[in-house]
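Q: Okay, next protein. This is Mid2 domain-containing protein from Ganoderma sinense ZZ0214-1. I've checked the sequence twice, so it should be correct. Can you predict the 3D structure?
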Amino acid sequence: MLSHRSPLPFGRVLPAVVVAAEFVSLAAAYSFNIVSTPRQCENLTVQITGDGGQAPYSLLIIPFGPSPLPNAIEARRITNVAFNTSTSVDFQLRFPENSQFVAVVSDNTGFGTGGTSAAVTVLSGQDGCFNSTTSVEPKWFLHTDPDGVLSSCATTRIWWNSADPQGTPNFQGVIPGGQSFSIPLGATSTQTGTGVGFNWTPDVRIGTTFLLVGGDDRGLGVAGSNVFTIQQGSSSCLNSTSPSSTAGSPAGGSYPTSTDGSGTNSGHSSSTDVGAIVGGVIGGVVGLIAIGLVVLFFFRRRRHHQNSGTKERPVDLLHDGDVGEEGHVGDSRLPAYYQPEPFTLPAPTIASSSHHDAPTSELDSFSQRDRRQSYLSTSTSEQGGSGYVGGMLRLAPSSAPSTSVSRKSPVPPSFRAVNIIQHDDAGPGEPSPEEEPETIELPPAYTNIKPRAAPPPPESTAGATVAEEPTAGPSTP
């Protein structure tokens, strides 16, 4: 197994470990599930889940809410069912349909250690398991002073008639969907009008629905139960462990909470709920550690790149100088790629002609003089001699007239004009000059010719008369 150094600081790891330890302790506790759907006069199955309890287990079914029977007949009794040595129990539920109850599971270590359900609704079932015309009564009654009122952190007297209980009375506090606990029996006293009782200070939060259950040596709940809503009092006795209704899911698994059967258990056990919670917490802790490792990896990688001295730059194959901050290479001069050399012709095999009438020695001197390095030039040389004009080699003119000289021996190599063209990327070429438009002469179309108008009559002169043409009439003999 590879060992690694955790990137999470100890201050962040410790809370996660504490949370995981708390859920592990929950996994070691126990709870219960209402396996079957609660129905009138049918069997109800309850099963213990978890390994934290100590047998023997017991189940307390406490009626809750008003009776649905006509005339408010109360046919429900507080039912105390023992598991004996088993972890499940099956018994007949003698509760009418549409009524409600609260279930509390206990073990050998104390009351309510297995949890408390919320208000469970009984659905329709069979008939004939209870008397719907007569109300049942507990073995004896318990009372409070002030009557019917429990206030937070306010002293309350719980009392009873001295001849009612058998043995030592006991009392329990039940919060539906929350915590249930035993109320310790304090020093009892007898008072006129309130019988035998003791003082108790409810350390329960304001607004909590609270069931006060009484019993004796015959069993839990034989004295019945009273329902209270904790009133405003003092908060001096409250702390983080004060009993209240839990915000999470109540004990008992899934069961009906309304008359239409919503939330009814489908028959499967939810004993793995605690294990799922523990697995989720452990998976979350492992996920946090994995995320921390990934963040640390990227952080170290980024720091490594920042501290690295090498910098990436483009490779210049034509120049190996340093690249400036502006990205320019070297100075502003154009790089000298090459120096052109004039092409030298090989010696001729036959007699050649010379264009100069100078002696041979003078020709040799001319040949040797013009064989030198030439450089690329973009301007015309103002001095005499050979040079390049516009990329063409130009030879110095000779002052002597040209004559023809015949030789039998080979002459030194002569030079030939060579055009050297340097190509560069100077953008698009210059536009070609516009051609002179072509003129085409056409003959006239004679489309505008009109008929000539008749000339006007001549104007009359002074004293002249114009005879009208005679009108044709009948001829006279």
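A: Here is a summary of the prediction. Residues 33 and 265 are 9 Å apart (CA to CA). The first strand starts at residue 30 and ends at 34.
Q: Noted. On to the next one.
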